[in-house]
Amino acid sequence: MFVLGINYSHDAxxxxxxxxxxxAAIQKERLTRRKHDLERTxxxxxxxxxxxxxxxxxxxxxxxxxxxxxxxxYGGVGLTTPLQKDFSLxxxxxxxxxFISHHLAHAYSAFSPSGQSESIVMVIDAAGSSSPEGKDYxxxxxxxxxxxxxxxxxxxxxSEAESYYLFTNNSYKLLDRFYLPSHSSEMIYTGGIGMAYxxxxxxxxxxxxxxxxxxxxxxxxxCNFHRGVNIMSSNEDKVIFNNNWQLNFNKPGFHxxxxxxxxxxxxxxxxxxxxxxxxIFKKTTTRNICYAGGVALNCVANGKVLSxxxxxxxxxxxxxxxxxxxxxxxxxxxxxxxxxAHYKQTHDYLxxxxxxxxxxxxxSNYLVVNKERTPNDQLINEVAKRLEKGEIVAWFEGGSExxxxxxxxxxxICNPMLSNMKSKLNERVKHRESFRPFAPVCPVECADSxxxxxxxxxxxxxxxxVKSDYRESLPAITHVDNSTRLQTLHEKEHPRLHKLLHKFxxxxxxxVLLNTSFNVMGEPIVETPEDAINCFLSTDxxxxxxxxxxxxxxxxxxxxxxxxxxVFRPSITxxxxxxxxxxxxxxxxxxxxTPLKHEEFEVxxxxxxxxxxxxxxxxxxxxxxxxxxxKLCEAFEQLNYLNxxxxxxxxxx
Length: 653
What we know:
Elements (H helix, E strand, L loop, with lengths): L1 E6 L5 E6 L2 E7 H5 L13 H10 L8 E5 L28 E4 L1 H10 L6 E7 L5 E3 L5 E3 H9 L7 E12 L3 E9 L12 H13 L5 H7 L14 E4 L2 E4 L16 H24 L7 E4 L6 H11 L3 E3 L8 H14 L18 H8 L5 E5 L2 H13 L4 E4 L13 E5 L6 H10 L8 E5 L3 H4 L11 E4 L17 E7 L5 H14 L4 E5 L11 H9 L5 E4 L2 E5 L4 H5 L2 E4 L4 E7 L2 E7 L4 E3 L2 H12 L6 H4 L3 H16 L3 E4 L8
């Protein structure tokens, strides 16, 4: 039995469940290379086709398709109609397609893979679905079509902010729900735990999706610096939202005062969560907790509050809106089976696996890398020695992680014992703000030797203190408040990384590595072998491991370059615009524009028109032209716009 789940809005994603188990899941951003990429309507087939191809089935073999509609109000995300003309994969208004509400999908994403038979399910985010009276809904395709063509529905539209359910194997019921109330104040509005955090994120960083930065900044601030200032006030089991907090702070934008705002927000979040849990505990006897929604990514609050109150605790690793796709798929499976799915998720490696031949084919296209296929034990030994020496290693293995945390399949790993490693990693690769911490990975059987753990943390969603004896020994992963966002690793979930940790421990006495996502700031985590190589070549990562290949960089001599095929990355375009009587010429990767002189622009146009089809020697008529083309190609290579390849290519730009 196959069920396909789809999420629209930011962090768009698709997930395929077979007989109650996720067999493939992917975020759209990993394929388009645009961070938090969204869908406002059913228009993009790529993430759906990715899941189908990973399992080797067609859409006709899928028994049910379930997607999330963010809002039942007209113009709501997922409801734009008509559909994109080029979408033909399935009919969204057929009986085979269900539409469900946002928080209900989040709830299924948390409970179904938890392995629990009964649990409180908490869903907290900035905003869920908007619907008449704020109720959960499930609509089949024909019913949704009728709704879209019908009169305006009766009842007040309410938007979900927090939902608390009780789930069992056979049923679920809503215990409590809080909404984003309507308002007319000119003040910045903070009526909701998740919305409050998103607004503070936007206030400081000009982006509501940077709550993780707020969490990282908070320990540098003093939550009592502005005495009496609260964003949320918690009294026993109640939470009161205050809308005048911004009067106590300077204008929006990052500066010294904002660290205190971050500290206040983090404190108030933790107090609010504690109040909510106490309230929900009065409504049920179970003390198991499952958790999803964007706020569930706050590992500091999870470690301080959730760990303290929950007996069994499961936090969906894709707790952000990408996880909606998992919830939709599990709802569909439960709908067909007439009972809730019961599966224990132990890892987040839900992407497709790339074959040895696929990796080899990609590597053969790059002239500027040395590559050596290495037996596993030899590879582990060599990488451990490189890590001990302080090299930065990119690690690519198996299927990609679905959620926002890299957990060893698309990771950058380093020696956390070096005092300069955090700054080195930021300067050479990540380019992140200095206040943001890096996280460790440790074998689960060793974790309590170095960290104040009270439970396992396989998805890097719990924060614990580093033990006092090891804070000086692990400077690169110890935050300013002595905390760290730990990943504990079982051997059965990732045998090679587990073995590498122990080999590194033999060399250094501590089997702990710094583990961060394989990307640069502002870009999604790498998905394909080609993404991995491009990121490797565009940064100062020392070595790249793809499966059993050890890859390093090499300099090409002039003869190799002029006899190669220059190939631009797919996102590269030329820009030619008129402005105030001047012609603006440049080349863009979709994020930045590099200005070009007229002569450079003409050379770039020739290169792009013959993209991967001719060598540099074949493109020119004279040595003078060859030097101009070569010089520009080398400049584009430095910008990671272009690569020199051995083979002729056909690439659409």
